[in-house]
Specification:
The complex is a heterotrimer of chains A (455), B (313) and C (336).
Chain A lengths: L13 H8 L11 H7 L8 H11 L1 H18 L1 H4 L21 H9 L3 E7 L16 E3 L2 E3 L1 H4 L5 E6 L5 E5 L14 E4 L32 H37 L1 H16 L2 H22 L3 H9 L1 H13 L2 H16 L1 H8 L4 H37 L11 H10 L6 H28 L6
Antiparallel strand pairs in A: 1-4, 2-3, 4-5, 5-6
Helix pairs in contact in A: 3-17, 4-8, 4-17, 8-9, 8-12, 8-13, 8-15, 8-16, 8-17, 10-11, 10-12, 13-15, 14-15, 15-16, 15-17, 16-17
Chain B lengths: L1 H27 L13 H10 L6 H14 L14 H7 L2 H29 L4 H13 L4 H15 L13 H31 L2 H9 L3 H30 L1 H8 L4 H11 L2 H29 L11
Helix pairs in contact in B: 1-13, 4-13, 5-6, 5-8, 5-10, 6-8, 7-8, 7-11, 8-10, 9-10, 10-13
Chain C lengths: L6 E14 L2 E14 L3 E5 L6 H9 L6 E10 L2 E2 L5 H7 L4 E4 L3 H4 L6 H10 L7 H14 L5 H5 L8 H13 L5 E5 L7 H18 L2 E6 L2 H7 L2 E6 L2 E7 H6 L4 H8 L40 H5 L4 E3 L5 E3 L5 H9 L1
Parallel strand pairs in C: 3-8, 3-9, 6-7, 7-8
Antiparallel strand pairs in C: 1-2, 1-4, 4-5, 9-10, 10-12, 11-12
The chains are: A alpha+beta (455), B mainly alpha (313), C alpha/beta (336).
């Protein structure tokens, strides 16, 4: 028999409670509906997306990764506008510089910039400058181009406009203190305030030299500019390839999953076939096969599409085609799996039973429920595309010079790895950071969008 | 079982045939001719084409390939080592064998090291060890293989002289370390990540709760109940990745100057050495198909719910 | 008999909380009961009322972020809350066993039924031989009404129906003859006909192996069939507790009454409509100041809005936590 006598906390005399609390009849008046409702504060029901956003924001690792990735985006897309170098420009006087190193001319300009308002330095090594090169430094004064024409035989000469007087002066290198930039002796070439001249396109007055933060390569191209462009190309390839995979894969998978039967069977056998193909071999073949016809099409077709393709280069277009042909299979499988799984769900059955058409079912039920998986897979596809591109570039089949991608930069750097290890370090680190942050953001998205997976 | 084996065999042959056709048309679509050089005259090219049967219609050429392959004849090289049987190039000169050897060792390393690492991480979930392994695996899957290879070469061989630089010969155990390490690191990390995730997933399943309610020791729960279930996604991953891991050796080979298939294959494509391209693709595809079969059998061993005859998609 | 040994299980003022990012959820908020030897107690309540959490804290399977924050659990004279993980492991499966709701997912799909049954013996007894374990497992399977037990032992879970699997689960839970079996909704996931069979098996086997059972369910019909006494839980508290007949034929708490009214009954000649309980259970993150059931209660009074009701002793061990039990007294006092 049940025995509750041992339950001391419950053993209370009703009259004692009444006494202690001083209960009155008023206390036992029925409560109104409004009063009952006011007891419970209704928690606002949060929409799926807002809830997902909240979960993502709460994920510190992913938020930090997202922030770093945005920094990479700024580096890749805004960075090139902020530095005066371009990925293709070759600075003959600045070959093989280390990170933050200046060539002698650049160093002198740097040190003398406090004295001059604008200047030209040349001939720092006798006879070393023999031709007018894009990116070398000049000054034009009253219509005269001072530089090679007048001074190329003199050693270690700077011509500049003196800050204090505005005179055009000539200074020998030996008279400049490299540490402080103080100038000990000047020769006045012409007096009076200088007027800014119309500078020719390739001739420019420089006031100071922007440092080569990552150094320069063997043909005098600024590595930071190249890394920025390379990152831009790599990210674009990643995003474009992921989008291509997303579109083809999801359409294929959805058709296969929805159609079922023989069509599904055939479509899945095709997927299995593509799975069995050694992708890299076919990719290599494709790259070689497509390159020439593509180039021809770009050169000869006047269409805007061809022009856009030309801007990207045939190598990149090849990579896109490769993705469109071979890499959508994983996405197709995932989407088909999702569709099959969702079709079995009760709410879809209910919708069908209520007479909802195919279109409505896809729009209202299948798509919103697939979105999570699609977003995650696409996000994680980007790094794998970037990897593939770097792999192809490494084998010499990716983007073509002077265009750069992170992969081609790494590949170039490998030739001289023992002498200039930093040339590998910068692009490799950026590549690793981009892939790493994208992976982390993707993981965060998965946790946020698919709460079932998060335990 | 017999019908299943026959079915699988038939499907494999059909797949190989389709891959042959794709490869054939692709390589014939490479602009130019294998015999086109600056000096060659049209007559010489025609002569050479006739010699190797390249003047015949494409479909006949394809048929010849298939018939010869069925006989076990892989043809002879047109360019790189003109006249040498392709079979010798692939199997006897060691290029292909070397790449496959590196690939399969790396795959084995990925499994043998990756799975235990994943288990350790899952078992010690939330501790510093788990944290360390998570950082390692997350960074590991973000480092391109060639970067790792170069870093290893520069640090271990050039700077510290612990390992030989000239691993080109791959003579002793030591010379294998760096190539294998740089090839397998990505996969070790990936497999470890995958194992950890699926292990944690398995640990949250109802049957683990049952085992705990029975009073099974934590160690046994992880090793017996969770591990076998969590291997299923790992096995799924290993099938398709085989091809990738073997072709991944291309990059490592060129860094360590290993005379493997990688560079050679690229050269063959560039010089349009048709028979070599074809043979390489077919042999590698066959290997991938075989690995897929191995994976299906491994599936069956791990998961009794799967019957080979009607495998669920 | 030793005073401590009078009851197999004594739960006193047990409090279990889940510490979520949104705040503390008091899943079990001070419940107490005693369970005698060979007694079957039903714990009834809707989803989220804390009945499973309570069971998990007894057997020590509470997962993070859940934590016992107060009270005591005394099992066979021993304070279970003071046990460490290894001591608890020795209790689990040997002295206290548990079976779960969904037999489809509760057996490991990659091991045979026999393997999993024998494991329950082997993990508490290193010396037991394989043959001995096998024999006992087969015997146990036969006891729960599985024909062809020898063959079933070598089969995998997916080769069995839901009912068969639940029988195997029961066999597994009882194989080491535990003193207490906790059955967490053991029939919910099964077809109605199978449910009846499983209940029969449980009733039958309870008599054979002399075990006490805590039967957790939301189905009052099941309770009536197998239990000696019943605790009705709502929002982490026991609202009414008593002998099974008292609860069924003389329910006192409005929640119990509503629960009974919402359930189809065959023993009454009514073609009465079933009356659902309106509203939804309260949010345990932010419980109301007054009675937890207040917002859904048809009899809600002003006092219910502000103060939690105390228990009223209705005799024969029948207790109920509702202000209505105190109304008469207060009214009379007012009149006087």
């Amino acid at each position: 028999m049940a025995d509750f006598s041992k339950i001391s906390p419950f053993q209370v005399d009703p009259s004692a409670i009444e006494e202690a609390m001083g209960l009155t009849a008023e206390d036992f008046a029925p409560a109104s509906e409004g009063e009952k409702e006011s007891m419970v504060e209704k928690r606002k029901s949060v929409s799926y997306w807002r809830d997902a956003a909240r979960r993502f924001k709460a994920n510190t690792v992913s938020m930090v990764a997202l922030f770093i990735f945005i920094c990479c985006l700024i580096f890749a897309f805004i960075g090139p506008k902020l530095i005066p170098y371009s990925y293709g420009d070759q600075y003959r006087s600045s070959l093989k510089l280390g990170p933050r190193e200046y060539s002698e001319g650049e160093a002198l300009i740097q040190s003398a910039s406090s004295y001059f308002d604008g200047f030209y330095a040349s001939g720092l090594q006798a006879g070393s400058i023999t031709a007018v090169m894009k990116g070398d430094h000049y000054i034009t004064y009253k219509g005269n181009k001072y530089g090679f024409t007048q001074e190329q035989n003199e050693e270690g000469v700077i011509i500049g406009i003196e800050k204090s007087t505005g005179n055009l002066v000539k200074v020998y290198e030996k008279d400049v203190d490299p540490a402080t930039g103080a100038v000990n002796k000047v020769t006045v070439l012409s007096e009076g305030p200088s007027e800014p001249a119309e500078s020719a396109d390739e001739l420019k007055t420089v006031k100071s030299v922007f440092p080569h933060i990552f150094g320069t390569d063997s043909v005098g191209r600024d590595l930071m500019a190249r890394t920025m462009y390379g990152a831009r190309v790599s990210i674009l390839i990643g995003i474009m390839a992921a989008l291509i995979v997303l579109i083809i894969g999801s359409i294929y998978g959805a058709i296969s999953g929805l159609a079922g039967g023989t069509l599904d069977f055939i479509m899945m056998r095709i997927v299995e076939l593509i799975y069995s193909i050694p992708e890299v071999l076919i990719v290599l073949l494709l790259q070689v096969v497509l390159r020439e016809p593509l180039q021809e099409w770009i050169d000869h077709s006047g269409s805007s599409l061809a022009q856009a393709a030309g801007a990207l280069g045939s190598g990149i277009i090849c990579i896109f085609i490769t993705f469109a042909l071979l890499y959508w299979v994983t996405m197709a499988r995932i989407v088909r799996g999702q569709v099959l799984q969702l079709r079995k769900q009760e709410y879809v059955t209910a919708a069908i039973a209520l007479g909802a058409g195919n279109k409505r079912i896809i729009k209202r039920h299948l798509l919103p429920n697939c979105v999570g998986a699609l977003v995650i897979t696409t996000c994680l596809q980007i790094p794998s595309a970037i990897f593939l591109e770097s792999f192809l570039s490494f084998l010499g089949l990716g983007v073509s010079a002077p265009m750069a991608s992170l992969g081609s930069l790494c590949s170039d750097a490998l030739q001289t790895i023992t002498l200039y290890p930093y040339r590998l370090v910068y692009p490799a680190v950026i590549l690793t950071i981009i892939v790493l942050t994208l992976n982390l953001v993707g993981d965060g998205l998965r946790d946020a969008l698919d709460p079932r997976l998060k335990k | 079982m017999v019908t299943y084996t026959l079915k699988r065999l038939g499907a494999a042959l059909l797949t190989l045939l389709i891959i042959m056709a794709i490869t054939f048309f692709l390589m014939n679509a490479i602009p130019g001719s294998p015999f086109l050089t600056e000096k060659s005259t049209p007559q010489q090219i025609a002569l050479a084409n006739a010699k190797y049967g390249l003047d015949k219609p494409l479909i006949i050429q394809l048929k010849n390939y298939v018939v010869n392959y069925l006989k076990g004849d892989l043809g002879t090289s047109l360019k790189m080592q003109e006249g040498t049987p392709v079979r010798d190039i692939i199997f006897h000169q060691g290029k292909f064998v070397l790449s496959i050897k590196l690939g399969l060792i790396s795959l084995a390393v990925a499994v043998i090291i990756g799975i235990p690492l994943g288990c350790i991480a899952a078992y010690n979930r939330g501790t510093w060890l788990d944290g360390f392994l998570r950082v390692m695996t997350t960074v590991g899957v973000a480092i391109p293989g060639f970067v790792l290879a170069t870093l290893l070469l520069a640090s271990l061989a050039v700077k510290l002289h612990v390992l030989p630089t000239n691993s080109g010969q791959l003579t002793d155990f030591k010379s294998y370390i760096m190539p294998i390490l740089s090839m397998s690191f990505y996969y070790v990390c990936y497999v470890a990540k995958l194992t950890r995730t699926s292990m944690l997933d398995a640990i949250n399943q109802d049957y683990i709760r049952t085992a705990r309610a029975k009073g099974v020791k934590t160690k046994m729960i992880v090793l017996k109940h969770a591990l076998r279930n969590s291997l299923i996604p790992v096995i799924t991953y290993l099938g398709p990745v085989t091809a990738g891991i073997i072709t991944g050796s291309f990059v490592v080979e060129s860094t360590f100057q290993i005379p493997g298939l990688g560079k050679y294959y690229v050269q063959c494509v560039m010089s349009r050495d048709y028979p070599v391209i074809m043979a390489t693709t077919v042999v590698l595809s066959a290997l991938v198909i075989f690995m897929n079969l191995v994976v299906d059998i491994a599936y069956k061993i791990v998961d009794p719910r799967i019957t080979l005859t009607n495998k669920e998609d | 008999m030793d005073e401590n040994k009078k009851n197999l299980l004594e739960v006193k003022d047990l409090k279990v909380s889940f510490f979520t990012p949104a705040g503390e959820v008091k899943a079990v908020d001070g419940i107490s009961y005693n369970l005698g030897y060979n007694e079957v107690m039903g714990i009834v309540g809707e989803s989220g009322s804390g009945k499973s959490v309570e069971a998990y804290s007894i057997i020590g399977l509470l997962q993070k972020p859940g934590k016992v924050v107060g009270g005591s659990i005394t099992f066979d004279g021993q304070d279970l809350l003071s046990y460490d993980e290894e001591q608890m492991r020795n209790v689990r499966g040997k002295d206290i066993s548990m079976i779960f709701q969904n037999p489809m997912t509760c057996l490991n799909p990659v091991y045979t039924i026999g393997n999993q049954l024998m494991e329950a013996l082997q993990c508490h007894d290193d010396k037991i031989t394989k043959e001995e374990a096998w024999k006992r497992a087969v015997h146990m399977l036969e006891l729960v009404g599985i024909n062809n037990a020898e063959k079933r032992m070598t089969q995998y879970p997916h080769e069995h129906s839901g009912g068969m699997r639940q029988r195997a689960m029961i066999a597994m839970a009882l194989i080491s003859e535990p003193k207490l079996l906790i059955a967490d909704e053991p029939t919910t996931a099964l077809d109605v006909t199978i449910q009846a069979q499983i209940l029969d098996v449980m009733k039958d086997i309870q008599k054979r192996v002399n075990t006490s059972i805590i039967f957790i369910t939301h189905n009052l019909g099941v309770v009536a069939e197998v239990c000696d006494k019943v605790s009705v839980m709502y929002a982490g508290k026991i609202v009414e507790q008593g002998d099974v007949n008292d609860i069924f034929y003389d329910p006192q708490h409005p929640y119990t009454k509503a629960l009974l009214a919402s359930m189809p009954r065959l023993d009454e000649d009514g073609h009465e409509r079933l009356i659902p309980i309106e509203g939804t259970p309260i949010d345990l993150l932010d419980p109301p100041q007054g009675c937890n059931f207040g917002p859904r209660c048809k009899e809600c009074r002003k006092i219910c809005l502000t103060k939690k009701p105390p228990y009223a002793d209705l005799g024969n061990g029948h207790i109920s936590a509702c202000w209505l039990h105190f109304m008469d007294g207060a009214m009379k006092k007012e009149e006087a």
